[in-house]
Structures are given as C-alpha cells and as structure tokens.
Design brief:
By secondary structure, the chain is an all-alpha fold. Helix content is about 60%, strand content about 0%. The model is unreliable at about 305-310 (pLDDT under 50). The chain binds zinc ion.
C-alpha cells in the first residue's frame, strides 16, 4: 500500500523518522498517563485510541522499519477480520462474566477482606501500581503458555505468534479463546484485590504500549525501555527461533523479565512460528492441531533441532 508515499521528499521522511525514533513512545506514554489525571470520559479514551492507532498505521506506511513487512490491503483486511473476531469474543466473555464470575470474585473479596488496594494513593501512583500488577499476572500466564504445551494449545497463543510480518494492528490478532486468558489480570487483581476502577483508567497506557510493541517502526529503547516494553524487545519475543521467543514475556511492562531473568536485548532476524505463515483455517485450528511448520511451540521438537533448522 503506497498512498502516494513516494511523493514525500526524502529529507522530510528522515525528519519524521527522527521525531518518531526519539519522541513517539515517550509522547504517547505521557499523553496516556494524562488522560486519567484529567478525569477523561469514555469518548476521550476512544478518540485517543483511534487517533494513535491511525497515526502508527500511517507512519508504518511512510517510514517502515522493515519495508518487506508492509502488507497488501487484502492482507491487512484479513488481519483486521481476525482482530474483529477476537475482540467480539472478548466482549462476549466479558458480558457473560459481568453478572456471574466477576460478581462472585467481588463477593469473595468482601467476604475475606481481600480488598488491599490503596485507593487513597494519588491517581498516577495507582495507575502505575495496577500497570505493574496486571503485567505481573500477564507475565506468568505468558511464560506458562510458552512453557507448557497444554496452555499454548488451550489459549491458542500460537495464533498470535504465527504472523511473519508484524504491524500495530497485529497486537489484537489473537485466537478468540485467548480473550479468556487475557482477562486473568483483571480477575485476579481488579476484582479480587480491588483497584478495578483504576484498571479501566490504565487501559490507554496498556493500549499505547502494546500497539507500539508490535509496530513496524524504528523506535528508541533507551531509558523508556527500562520499564516499558518497546518493539525491539517484543519483536524479539516474536522470533521464529525458540530460544529467542522464550524471552521478553512482558507485552507492556518489561520490568518482570528483568527481575525474573528472561529479558533479552538483541536483533531479530525473522518473526513467526516457522518458515511459512499458516493459513487462516490453520490459525483457528491451532488449539487442536499445531501447524507442521511450527518450531516455536513448547515440546514440538528439541530446541537444538529447531535452532539447526533456522537459517
Ligand atoms: Zn508469546
């Protein structure tokens, strides 16, 4: 998809590239943190989300880090179709749990006085606390999915890894079943320990970070990459080499990888679960059958064989 990109002067592209490299992630992170401080309503969050996702997509067309990762319009629409199915599944699970599981968890919290959330802290401190708390739960779920074959399959996590080319919209390209597992932080922290209201406010910070972690742009990882996941780290997690993929489990917060020894800062040659990208039918069937080309899934073959197969 070119959209007249070739007509943009090279000097202007370089200027945009430089601004993007140094300023995009810090600026969007600060804006995301300002929204709860300003008491933003749902509409403001939606406008912010659509604006930054649109901005990332435009920049990916104008100044892609890996030009060969640019997708045709047809391929983009197919990814968007999967995103729509995954997010609809998430909405359905949430609606089903709203009057059942979530109510039960909240009653457990009251019954056993589990509400330890420091609601009197300044809002920004609460937002950062829930950010790292949610990511603590996500970290262990994600690490488990790469460690245990049953969890890799049950969650359909391989579907998210199967894409050879990553862009910002791949963030939500998951198997519909994974929506259940991505609710774990909200269930275990938000409903059981308290802080659910702040959990909603922190959504924009999560969104900004995870969309940038998948985008096809050259971004700086220094300083901001001590706490927040950058695309250099996360694309490494999407590597088709198993040992590389078994690092950097934090999709938004890289802190827990640093603490638990799974952090890796290195270049990534190729993404995906194997040399070829499975068909969409195979992606949906991944909880039942791993594609034959797969070499990232746990327990499919010894790690040494997978590494030798890579060239
Ligand atoms: Zn993963």
């Amino acid at each position: 998809m070119k959209l007249g990109v070739d007509r943009v002067p090279e000097a202007r592209k370089q200027r945009i590239q430089s601004l993007t490299y140094w300023g995009l992630q810090p600026t969007l992170t600060v804006l995301a943190l300002m929204l709860p401080l300003l008491g933003a309503e749902a509409l403001a969050y939606q406008v912010f989300w659509f604006s930054f996702i649109g901005l990332l997509t435009l920049l990916e067309i104008l100044i892609p880090a890996r030009p060969h990762w640019q997708e045709s319009l047809n391929d983009k629409l197919l990814v968007l179709g999967l995103v729509w199915i995954a997010s609809t599944a998430g909405d359905l699970f949430e609606a089903a749990f709203d009057e059942s599981l979530f109510v039960w968890l909240a009653s457990l919290r009251d019954q056993f006085a589990l509400d330890i959330w420091p609601s009197d802290w300044p809002i920004l401190a609460q937002v950062m606390l829930i950010f790292v708390s949610y990511e603590f739960v996500n970290y262990w779920y994600h690490r488990g999915a790469h460690q245990w074959s049953w969890l890799w399959k049950t969650s359909g996590h391989g579907t998210h890894h199967a894409f050879k080319h990553l862009t910002a919209i791949n963030t939500m390209a998951n198997h519909p079943l994974e929506a259940l597992f991505l609710m774990l932080p909200r269930m275990l922290v938000g409903f059981l320990l308290g802080g659910e209201e702040v959990g909603m406010a922190v959504g924009s910070l999560f969104a900004v970070t995870v969309f940038m972690a998948h985008c096809n742009l050259e971004l700086n990882s220094k300083v901001i990459g001590w706490l927040f996941t950058t695309n250099r780290y996360h694309i490494h997690h999407h590597s088709m080499v198993r040992e590389e993929s078994n690092t950097n489990y934090g999709c938004a917060c890289i802190l827990w990888d640093r603490v638990f020894g799974t952090f890796s800062d290195a270049d990534t040659k190729e993404a995906g679960i194997g040399k070829t990208q499975p068909t969409y039918a195979e992606l949906f069937l991944m909880p039942f059958e791993e594609p034959r080309s797969s070499q990232v899934a746990p327990l499919t073959q010894p790690a040494s064989v997978a590494s030798n197969d890579y060239d």
